[in-house]
Design goal:
The structure is a homodimer of 419-residue chains. With 419 residues, chain A is an alpha/beta fold. Chain A folds into three domains: 170 residues, Molybdenum Cofactor Biosythetic Enzyme, Chain A, CATH 3.40.980.10; 78 residues, Alpha-Beta Plaits (2-Layer Sandwich); 151 residues, Alpha-Beta Complex (Maf protein), CATH 3.90.950.20. The first copy, chain A, is 43% helix and 25% strand. Chain A contains 16 helices and 17 strands. In chain A, a hairpin with a 2-residue loop joins strand 7 and strand 8. In chain A, helix 3 crosses helix 4. The longest helix of chain A has 21 residues. Chain A is globular and about 80 Å long. Chains A and B meet through helix 1, helix 2, strand 2, helix 3 and helix 5 of A and helix 2, strand 2, helix 3, helix 8 and helix 9 of B.
């Protein structure tokens, strides 16, 4: 099955946003064994969209169109596709009800434009939008399939992953199974990782191995194809073990369990609570933990102490210590971790202090970071990093190193801090 | 002059990277008054690239192709374009010398593949690559122009900005300038905003008006064209005033100054400090503020109080108040804002409490949010919201409402809280 992706929206042609939808959809389809041979972008313009649909219809089996399902006048994807396929539009009752309900709940006025969002191509399979208003839909026309998805990534992504892909998997006629596993690495760069498995990478065929670096983490996706799912799984497991033999020390987890999820599961499992004292990171650590449902089970809370005053007055770091060692020091990081743990009565306290930049701070180089950890057993430790990248990349990296060190610490029952 | 952008590279179709080149080129062309009506992506495949060139040649004046100029076997953009235009390839001496020089300097071996990078379309204008090896080129064919640019963004961007655009500007026959302004709105949905200016939107021609919704904010980009830049600016200003007459109450700013930047500038300008007490948002407000360089001038800090215990013990919210009204209440939000302001000695305290979900909490509906504000003058206020979307969208929305309310409050010198 060959697919192509058409993104509709003048904001893409004006360069206001990048076509990250095409990237996301392509990656998911690749994992599902569906080839993507074309991406196109057209503006909110009927004639050009019709022309693009006509090109796509001649060369692809599955035509995926994102964007232009919204309530406004320039949203014309459904109307144009209906024209092209010579089919009608009708209201999807479930979506219409949800839209009406929203306006009742929020006490705001529903316009006719909003109703329009519930219109779908006749005789299509409808995918309810759990994160917005406009539903998605899949319409068959001859031997071609047209999939319409909403444009906002936060609506499109879960709809694709949770609804559309399982539906396609269930209905696909070819007899080929695909299995893949993501290996997650931290503390090693992409180039270094790849050079250590260069021979494996250059010989890959089935399974394939796709490296990806993102926000300081590196992943390897190992994917095998076979007519038999068990065989595909076996091929993947075999390759994962080969890679682990080389670089297993840096592999902290698999599949969807990224650093943050892994820490959450660990804390939950060990019934431990954590609190954070954040200077450099400004609340990013606690905010990241709070992004996981159920965080209140293990996140006691935290204090953002952005100034020396706050470190003394709110957190209780000693004035003498600050005067002697400064805010970006082992001593300050450890004191911050101890103070926050005691203040919140949590099992673990963690602290972040450093120089995010741009520029040095009181003679300390931009990128210098200290992370402290304190346990209720009395164990206290800290480590330092020199981080590169822009201000926010440094903050994100520091949080990841903090999470990674907590995972090491908890998994080893408060053994030595490993970074 | 109408342009289109063709990106060549299988890594785009596999979803390994997003097509940020198309975004960058589009934005620069829009600024130069060149319309972009199509983006396409094709893999490193001769047949499909030929087909794409043939579509482009029928509908665009300037066809921009990025990627596939490199040394490897699958780099076939130049060869395929030469085929399509029925022209030859020849070595660009300056590029060839620079490539040879590189291998002499680094003491590495130059392969025949590397020489290939210096090949250019015959009779084209060549743009030397100051950040890599493969030069760019512009080739005229009938009334069409073909622009080939290297794929790596760090080579393509400076070549486009420093060499290609000045060249096009100098040689272009039309005399047209473009000016645009982005209007930023908050507190009004995209559909509602558009329905209030529906007549303006449906009559637009010059200036054009492009709406965009993102993360709970809505923007309108107003763009005018004229042979005279002053006239284009005048047309934009006139339209902005017409729109402001209708929906100016919701317009908080212009161009690059989003909510966060606007609040930072205001706090800096008024020399005010802020601290936050965050339950629902878990530190996201302080982390967002800390993402701006210089945040230490106005961000005193904050406390994440994720549990009732922390609200009492660390922040100092009264036990009786919590018992009587609960953590998600006007009373608790206002007490949290007061306590945090006093604790940090800041000019403003802000608080966030609510039910992020999934699921209701102690009988309070998922999505219920209370935001409290306290000023050193003694003024205290709060407001409630009902937010939709997933857990993290609710947290982001709540932070944006908080930022918006602070902007209103500070701009009006602590007048009534407006949301």
């Amino acid at each position: 099955m060959n697919a192509e992706i058409i993104a509709v929206g003048s904001e893409l042609l004006l360069g206001q946003i990048a076509n990250t939808n095409a990237q996301f959809i392509s990656a998911r389809l690749a994992e599902s064994g569906i080839n993507v041979y074309h991406h196109s972008v057209v503006g909110d313009n009927e004639e050009r969209l019709l022309q693009t649909l006509s090109h796509a219809d001649k060369r692809s089996d599955l035509i995926i169109i994102t964007g232009g399902l919204g309530p406004t006048k320039d949203d014309l994807t459904k109307e144009t596709t209906a024209d092209f396929l010579a089919c009608g539009l009708s209201y999807d009752e479930e979506s219409l009800k949800a839209i009406e309900q929203y306006f009742i709940q929020t006490g705001t006025t529903m316009t006719e434009n909003n109703r329009k969002q519930a219109l779908v191509l006749e005789d299509s399979t409808v995918f309810f939008n759990f994160h917005g208003m406009a539903p998605g839909m899949l319409k068959s026309s001859g031997d071609k399939s047209y999939l319409l998805l909403p444009g906002p990534p936060r609506e499109m992504k879960p709809m694709l992953v949770d609804q559309v892909l399982p539906y396609l998997q269930h209905h696909k006629t070819e007899n080929s199974s695909i299995h893949s596993k993501v290996m997650r690495f931290f503390g090693i760069g992409e180039a270094d990782l790849e050079s250590r498995i260069e021979d494996i990478l250059s010989e890959q065929s089935n399974p394939t191995i796709a490296p990806l670096a993102e926000d300081g983490e590196v992943t390897l996706r190992v994917t095998a194809r076979s007519s038999d799912l068990n065989e595909a799984e076996h091929l993947v497991d075999q390759m994962v073990r080969v890679i682990e033999d080389r670089v297993g020390d840096y592999c902290y987890g698999y599949d969807q369990n990224n650093l943050l999820q892994k820490l959450s599961l660990l804390l939950e499992h060990k019934k431990m609570t954590v609190s954070s004292a954040e200077s450099l990171t400004g609340g990013l650590f606690s905010s990241e933990l709070a992004s996981i449902p159920g965080a209140s089970n293990y996140l006691s809370g935290g204090i953002t102490v952005y100034t020396d005053e706050a470190k003394k007055n709110v957190l209780g770091v000693e004035k003498d210590l600050l005067d002697q060692y400064g805010a970006v020091s082992r001593e300050c990081a450890e004191s911050m971790a101890q103070q926050i743990r005691i203040k919140f009565g949590s099992d673990v306290g963690i602290s972040f202090t450093g120089v995010a930049g741009p520029g040095d701070y009181h003679g300390i180089a931009e990128g210098t970071v200290w992370i402290g950890v304190s346990l209720s057993s009395g164990y206290t430790a800290s480590f330092t990093l020199t981080l590169k990248g822009d201000r926010n990349f440094k903050r994100i990296s520091a949080v990841k190193y903090g999470i990674y060190s907590l995972i090491q610490l908890i998994e080893k029952d408060a053994g030595p801090l490993k970074v």
